[in-house]
Design goal:
The structure is a single chain. This protein is mainly α and 153 residues long. Helices cover 75% and strands 0% of the residues. Helix 1 runs antiparallel to helix 2 and helix 1 runs antiparallel to helix 4. The chain is elongated, with a radius of gyration of 16 Å. The structure holds fe (ii) ion. The site of fe (ii) ion has 2 residues, from loops.
Length: 153
């Protein structure tokens, strides 16, 4: 079992906390678009964004607890989420529905990269539990990318 400050796990912990930050930020952006989307596809996209937001928030606790089960510290605040996430804020509530879909698709691809890093780091230090559970997070992320991509065709 890892002990606090174990450098061998630092890459894994950084990747997990990065995935936590991205998931939190993407959750908020997806809800933001759920609230503000407009146009003829309002109902479909309003519901799709809500489903995806629920899926994102549903993984937050598991990601944080994989950090704690490795005896390390999780993110603690919106401030730490903001400093660690690669998901950029989108505060323009008037952007077109298609632009919202494309932005969420691209952001989910960024999260996918981060989750792939979690998988790689977990395998390299023999953390089998993280390696197993991250497969589910990746599968859900790929579903979100697929659904968003299909709506842009
Ligand atoms: Fe709602």
């Amino acid at each position: 079992m890892a002990t606090l400050g174990n450098n061998a796990k630092s890459g894994l912990v950084t990747a997990l906390n990065g995935a936590l930050a991205d998931t939190m930020a993407l959750y908020f952006k997806t809800k933001n678009f759920h609230w503000h989307v407009a146009g003829p596809r309002f109902r479909d996209l309003h519901l799709l964004f809500d489903e995806q937001a629920a899926q994102l928030i549903g993984t937050v606790d598991d990601i944080g607890e994989r950090v704690r089960k490795n005896d390390e510290y999780t993110l603690t605040s919106i401030g730490t989420v903001a400093s660690e996430t690669q998901i950029k804020d989108q505060d323009d509530v008037t952007i077109a529905a298609d632009a919202m879909v494309a932005e969420l698709r691209d952001d989910n691809r960024k999260l996918h990269d981060r989750l792939s890093k979690v998988k790689e780091e977990a395998e390299s230090v023999g953390d089998n539990a993280t390696s197993g559970i991250v497969d589910d997070w990746i599968d859900q992320c790929e579903e979100r990318i697929w659904f968003l991509n299909q709506t842009t065709k």
